[in-house]
Amino acid sequence: MNIGLMHPTGNPFARQAAIALAEQGQLTSITTSIAHNPQHLWAQKLAKLAPSLARELERRTWLAPEGVSLHQFLWPELLRILLLKARLPQRLGFSPQRLTDWLYHQLDQHFAWYHLAGLTGVYAYEDGAAETFTVAKQWGMRCFYDLPIVYYRQSQQIQQQEAAQFPELAPALLSLQEPAAKLARKDQELVLADRVIVPSTIVKDSLATAPVNRDRVHVVPFGAPIDYCQPQPKQHPHFRVLFVGRVGPRKGVHYLLQAWRLLALSDAQLQLIGVNEFPPGWLNPERDRFTYIPSIPHAQLPAHYAQASVLVLPSLIEGLALVQLEALAAGLPLITTANAGGTDIITDGVEGFVVPIRDPETLAEKIMWCYEHPEELMQMRQAARRRAEVLSWRRYRQQLQGVIQGALG
Fold this sequence. Notes:
Layout: E1 3-6, H1 12-23, E2 27-32, H2 41-49, H3 51-58, E3 69-72, H4 74-85, H5 88-92, H6 97-114, E4 121-125, H7 130-138, E5 142-146, H8 152-165, H9 180-192, E6 195-198, H10 201-206, E7 217-219, E8 239-244, H11 253-263, E9 268-273, E10 291-293, H12 301-306, E11 310-313, H13 322-329, E12 334-337, E13 352-355, H14 360-372, H15 374-390, H16 393-408
């Protein structure tokens, strides 16, 4: 089997999928936008001349396994980054997501037109596979589809409910604004896929109304970076609740803030790390209740995990948030939801807690339990690390290899 894998930005799970295919001798090529190689001479010079840019590019490091071709389609992503830096979406009043959608579509077309020759299978991701799968099917190829987040119909339903309850948050609910053509491509991708790989049970269940046979859907949870994130000594005595991710309604941050108000703990800290996706000014009345860090290099996150007491991720719409697996690897207990994929990675009451969505009272109750039970919380920290060692990226690769082999008979 000669498989070509395509992902526009080279997320950690895409890089691990490529390794999984390469380990089986099935990966022929990787196609992406930017694949940074810090060992190249130009990269070393850039690190000296523009260290901030070099650090940003380090997040896009992707080294092809030996014998695998790596194709970069640079200009759409470079243009997207330039337009974002120029704040064009804000100036013209449209969502930055439109630029991301454009990038995915450009790379999908490029892969379909120029990089399918000689392949017998393709591995592609949501929103970037419709053109590729259409051409691949004409050539008799196997199509493997990776869907990292819940099916759009369930996402829309949840976001419509949120918009009805919190009308002021409607502008921040992106699925309500997705064009019909994009949604049609999502369904086209599912129809053409021979196998659909999802990271959690919640994603598989969301496909009940999708145009796909559930027998073709396989749950393969993402892995924990057990070497990259490791337990470190906490350097302060404070009880600190940490949130990492896009700070907005899709992640349930408004419910976390409600829970924090209910607790009113004078000697505890709430820290939010991530891009603010709430409407402009929405967070301002709450700013004295938490510490906010808009963005940090990913390499600094392990230090923040180490100084926290618990990671809280009350997501409404998710697939399986990687920050949860990073936190477990760092020995940090979780308070999460089934919608965040929590039931696939932790046991309630062992490595943390799984709470219902939209339930600030239960969220507050579990945070208070962590606050009042420091000794038991320490046991949870140890259990979290043990669980991460089970949920390694190696395990992810082995499970994915099993799905691919099963499809090939």
